[in-house]
Amino acid sequence: MAKFEEQATQTLFEKNFITEEQLVQIKEYRSSGIFSLNAELKMFLYLSVLLFTSGIGILIYENIDTIGHIAILSLLLIVIVICFYFCFKNSKGFQKSETTFESPVLEYLVLAANILTCIFIGYLQFQYKPFGTHYGLATLVPTIVSFFCAYYFDNKSVLTIAITGLTAYVGFSVTPQDLLKNDFYSHQDLSYSAVILGGLLILWTIYSSKIQLKTHFNLIYLTFALHMISIASISNLVNDHKGIWFAFSIILAGSSFYFYKISHEVKAISLFVFMIIYAYIGINIFIFRVFENIDFSDIWVLFVMVIPAYFIGSIILFIKLIKNFNKEIAE
């Protein structure tokens, strides 16, 4: 690894991307053996938040009969108020550009406050039903709170919670169980909701880019949009309803083309890789649907010989596409 870094640095110097003075400084820095613990500390902070909020949930579950509902809700509310007090006190206020707290601990305090707020509202609705039978409001309210916190405090983790809450509000969830049960097949409206919501997220990224509103959030929105549109489309490619599978194949093709372009613009390899995977799955299902009525009994030997070559070629093409993508964004 060290040899590779030295060669890369030398290449940058030879191409005049860095000066000789900068080359010397880089070599001196690497020879000092100093390394950063920033990523490790942030990971432990994140785990601390997850363990704390999980512990709150377990505490409520195991002691709900002895502590009492009012006491639990009061304790949650006190902790939430304290967390938000320190967050608002130390924040720089809302800004359209990217902002950060002076201390990274406060970023995770925002995350903890937001998760606890979701727990508080969910528990309140479950026990006392302040929203009546409108259970969607119990999802929508913490979603709105999460969006506010995400934009006010500039927190990507909270934004992820907000978008997840929004997808849950329209009834869309992506879990292995849902994919195996193929809920899109049994609930056709869910497919349309997923595609429409994914399209709206894409439109929001376009609008926020024009007004320069938290443009660093765009990758999160695009990631959710890619997964929602692609999963809904692929699930409906196996739908036997007349015309449905073909319509969703067009949607998947358009989505793949858009994310191919946007992944190069934002230089996001995650979007590029998942786009290729979804497109590849969609193409194979489409080919199968087109040729499903053809009798291969007479040419089955040729078919068996072609299949291995097809998959090997697909792997080679996938690797080549990734290498070309990395080369393009590096330039």
UniProtKB/TrEMBL annotation:
The chain crosses the membrane at residues 43-61, 67-88, 108-126, 132-153, 158-175, 190-207, 219-238, 244-261, 268-287, 299-319. The keyword DNA damage does not apply. Residues 12-158 form the DUF2157 domain. Keywords: Membrane, Transmembrane, Transmembrane helix. It holds the Pfam family DUF2157. The keyword RNA-binding does not apply. This is DUF2157 domain-containing protein. It comes from Flavobacterium cupreum.
